[in-house]
Every structure is written in C-alpha cells, then in structure tokens.
Amino acid sequence: MKKDDQSEKTLSRRNFLKTTGGVAATAAAMVGGLNLLPAKAEAACDALPKKWDDTYDVVVIGSGFAGLAAAIEAKNAGANVLVIDKMVLHGGNSIINGGDFCAPGTKLQQENGVQDSAELMLKDMLRVGAYLNHPDLAKMVAFNAKGALEWTESYIGAKYTKLNFHGGHSVKRAHGTINSSGSELVNKELAKAKEIGVKIQLRTKLVKFLSNKDGRIVGVEVRKDYKFPDDNSGKAAFIKAKRAVVLSSGGFSRDTRLRQVHDPRLTDRFESTNQPGATGEALLAACMAGAMDVQMDWIQLGPWTSPDEKGFGYVPLFCERLVGYAPMINPKTGKRFFKETGNRKERADAIILIGDPVIIMGDSYAVNKQIFPMALQKGMEAGAIKKFDTLEALAKEYNIPVDVFLKEIERWNSYVEKKKDDDFDCMIFKDAQPTVAGPFYAARLWPKVHHTMGGLNINTDAQVIGFDFKPVKGLYAAGEVTGGVHGAVRLGGVAMADCIVFGRVAGTNAAKEKPWG
Amino acid sequence: MKNKKTKKLLLAVSLILFLVALLSGGIDAAPKEKKAAPKAKAADVKAWDCAGCHKDKKVLPDSHVPIKEMPYEGCLVCHIPGEKNAGTLRTKIPGSHLHALKGVKCAQCHGKVKKPAPVEMSKCVACHGETAKLAEKTAKVKPQNPHESPHYGTSADCNLCHHQHAKSENLCAQCHKFDYIVP
Prior knowledge:
The complex is a heterodimer of chains A (517) and B (183). By secondary structure, chain A is of the alpha/beta class. Chain A has 17 helices and 20 strands. Chain A has three domains: 2-56 and 78-90 and 198-299 and 452-488, FAD/NAD(P)-binding domain (3-Layer(bba) Sandwich); 94-193, no CATH class; 304-446, Flavocytochrome C3, Chain A, domain 1, CATH 3.90.700.10. In chain A, strands 1, 2, 6, 7, 8, 9, 18 and 19 form an eight-stranded mixed β-sheet that branches. In chain A, a hairpin with a 5-residue loop joins strand 7 and strand 8. In chain A, 58% of the residues are buried.
C-alpha cells in the first residue's frame, strides 16, 4: 500500500510538477479540455508543429479592455497582430462592465471641484488592498491612470460624462462613460483596432502555450470554430507568435471549481456577475508553460448585487449611486449594520455574516438625483427594485420591524443634517438630504462573485514572471488575468484603469520583442 | 530495482488509462447536434417532403393534415398565433425549413458550393434589411429590445440567436432574465 502511494507520488511529481509548478497539478486534474496527459505535461519544451496554420508578430488572447489596448499599441508599434477570443462575441466582461474609469487629477474632477492626486489614489489602493498589492504595480496604475483615460478619450474616442463615487475611495474619481457601460470603451477600442488593421478572430480558444527548448513562448495551440462551453467543438490549429503572446483573458469568477480550490466558501451558492466565459483555463495554461501565479485566493464578492435578478443586473447601479446619500438596513433588526461607503470586501463580509439579504433604500430626492433613469426603470421592470409610497409600506414588504426602522431612519437623517455618521462613519456627501421624500425605492442585496484579484505574476513591463523569478520569454499579460495590482481588494473603477494601463504596456513591449524565427 | 520500475510503469499506464477514461466520459456526455441528411441531397428535397430527409422518422403529429404539395400559404391557414389556432411555425421548425417553405434554395445563402460553409450576416441583411431598421420595429418588445442592447448596439450577428440548422437560442439569457421566444 505504502509503496503504491509512493509510486504514485513519484509519478505525479515527475510528470506533473517538475516543470510546471504547484498550480499545474490542480490544473491538470481540472482542465479536462486541455487533454493534458502526463506524457505531454512533461515537456516544458513542446514538440512544435511542422506547419503553423497562421503566423503573426503578436497574438493577443482575449478581446476585452486590456487585450484590445495591447493589440492597438502593438499594431501601432509596427507589429501585425491577431486577437483571439473563445466566445461568439467580443468584449468579455468589459462589455458588461459598469463603465467607471478611475483616474486622479483629471479635467472632470477639476470641473466638479474634486482635489485628487496619483499619490492619493495609490494610497487608497494600498490601504483598501490591505497592503498586499505589489506596490510597483499599483503605482503604475495610479500614476498612469490619467494618461490612460486621456488616451481612451483622445485616441479611442470614448466619452465620459459623469464623475462617480465608489466605496473605499477617498474622493470621487470614477469617470462614468456616456452610456454607463464599459461597452462605450471596448466597442470603440474594437472599431479602432479593426480600422488600423488588427485581425480579430472569435470562437477561437487557447488550448496551450507552445515553448521552444529555451522555454521561450513561440506560439499557441487553439481550437478554431470553438463553441463555448463544449471543449470538443472546433478543430485544432497552431498559431505562430513571432514576437510575443499577450494574455488578457480575464479572471475566473465563473470557474466554480477553480475558485473553490482557492476559496472553498465560494460554492455555487454564490452566483457571479461575470459573463459565462470568465473561466480560468487560459490562466492555468500559462502556469503550465511556466508562469507563476499570485494571490489566487483573494476573490472579490460584489456587495451590491441582488438575488432578485440574474448576473450583474441593475441593482449595483442603484446601490452604488445611493451610498453616501441613503441608508442600508438589516431587515431582521430594522437597523443599519455597516458603513455604506465601506469597501467591497468589508461590506460583502458584513452581509454574509448576517446570512440573509439586506436592503438598500433611498427617497425620491436621492433616487432622482443619483440613479441613471434607465437603470431604475429596468431594475423595477425586473422586479429587483421596488417603489413604496411610505416607509411603513417598505417595512411591511421586507418584514422589517417598523417602529425600530422609523427611529433608525430619523437617526440617519440627523447624521445627514450634520454630515457626520456617529454610528459607522459613513461618508455623507455635501448634497445629501434626509430620507423623507416619498416615494421610496428599495432593493435586496446579496453578494455575487465579481473579480479575481489574483492571477499571473507580472512586472511593470507586463512581462509574466516564471517560477525561476525570471520573465517567461515571449509572454506578456494584462488585466484581470494578472495578480498583485489590487492586493486584497480591487477598488471600484480601478479595473478599467488597470486594463488600459497594463494593456498598453504589454502591447508596446510585445511588439518590441526580437522575432524568434 | 527492475521489479519496482515495472510496477511504476504499470501504475503510470493505469493512471493514464484512468485519465483517458475520465476525459472521454466527459466527451460522451457532451451534447451532439442532430445529423442532417446529406447536403447535396437535402438541396433537392421539396420543402413539404419531410421523409425526403427525415426518412421514416415521424416529424409531424398524427393529427396533422397531409402536406404533400402544400405551399407555405397553406401552412398559414392553421399556423397563426392565438387560441384555437395551431400557433406560428416560427418557433416550431428550424429557420432553414421556413426558408425552404418560402422557396429559398440552399444555394441562395450558401452559394453553389460542394461544402456549404456558415453564412455571413451580410447575407441575412441583404434580404431582411439592416439591423438598425429591425431594431426600430422591435423597439417596444418587453423587457428589452432584443435587437438593440447597451453592449452590442444593433451590431450583434443574427446567427448568434437565429440558428438555421439547430435550435435557435436566447443569447441574452446567458446573463439576463429575458424570456424571449426566438424564431
């Protein structure tokens, strides 16, 4: 018996672990689609195809904010560029993102009288990230966010019309797109990429990174005409990447198996705000090619989602615009329970601790002032946001003890009057008013898996770092597939900044690589 | 030593076999699309001639009236929406069949080729009109215009939902609670 165990250990060590590091073992067991048999995994240097089906200077995996920014910069640096995406539609999570881009010291902030600086944004990122952020990466984002935002305006043509607040930031610095969606930016990136001659190929799934005997990434094995999520659909093809591959395949919030490896609490009891393709196989493929992963267990739950609608839905747009203007209530007690303007992690943890959904509410002053009309209307049509003539009716709907509740609202209103919350130190905005004017609106909140802070270890040049602490040659990464930028908590609106800053760096540097053949 | 090696080898082989079995199990579980009749032959079959492709397989209910030589207008006598009617054909049969019933030949979309390839969206709009116009027509559909979204505008490919040779799908439902019936 013992001998058997030993033999098995030797086998898995030799064939799974030796060349690829700890994550690969999990990966091999999990990613059925890769058909990764031990014999194959052993080769860090792959048997390269006799004939490549396609050849490009730079191959980008993923067509979200980061991938398209990388593709555009690589193309403009003279490379010929292919972008692949496994899904039938471009844009990944970026196209369903809320469209808030954080940047400090901008024109829109100036117009709104907001004092801000890159130093302050970095300070916020580190504080909220529990100082687990890789400081040089966080600094890259904070100090280049303004330039990145301006690039998306002047070169890509994206329009930002509102300055929004997100919990955990010390000032309003989220630049909201004109349509309150990331589609404003990602669709314009796609149009620009096509205009300058970047080739976009959807329904093409990365299967494996191919490396030569020096461990340099030389291309990728893909499945063309892939139909998500059927791993046997499509047919195999080999794409040569003469200069580099940029991995920008996003996070793994929808990968229940992988997220439970790192955070066993995150069973299917928790839905996700992400698109169905937000799974981790491309990240794991990079690990199998020698990339090091970091902080994979820091998985963010959005505290502003509703159990009464699917996916991200409309309630986050309702909730996040109301914090700092209106209270959140625990229906069991009829009282507030946490700092409404607290960061995502604190708030999600507080709700999970209560164990049942809580309520975010606002009066007609706050709602009319703060909520994008389409979001309110759609949220109400979906039944996730409800309207009440009186506070008593609201209390009845959610089984809130009414007397305690009415007293609690009075208490909250007194804090709004003096702009200071004695109970939870919630930030109360200058133009906030007491919650008194009917009709009142409310929605239930229950967290959903939203963002995976962990991912591939990169340096400030967006090079992927391997288990030997050296860059994996020919491999760059940007966006949610990377780890370290955000530490324990990603602040709202910083994902767009992260993707554009590092996407551009990755693309520029990928194009500069010396062709291997 | 040698014996130990053999044992290891045996173990290795059995583990590989086990993995293969595990993986192929997953493969078999994957849904497969129905096999259609050979393409060259299908192109010549009249739209009313179910057996021409489906052979002996029963595709119509027993109570269905005979449809030999029936033109599409004939279908529409019963197949109209509303109670006591047979309901629209648009969700009952694949899009390709509707096209065929309306006299559209395979080659009109696929071209005269030996191996028909997936049809580009430009072919759809050549007959059906631009999607922006279509979106105007469906502007009042609840809960959301299916042909215009904040994500893709009016540019989403028709084929994403309106499959012709497989069951159509409601792509929005991946993330939204929109219960459209997709023709």
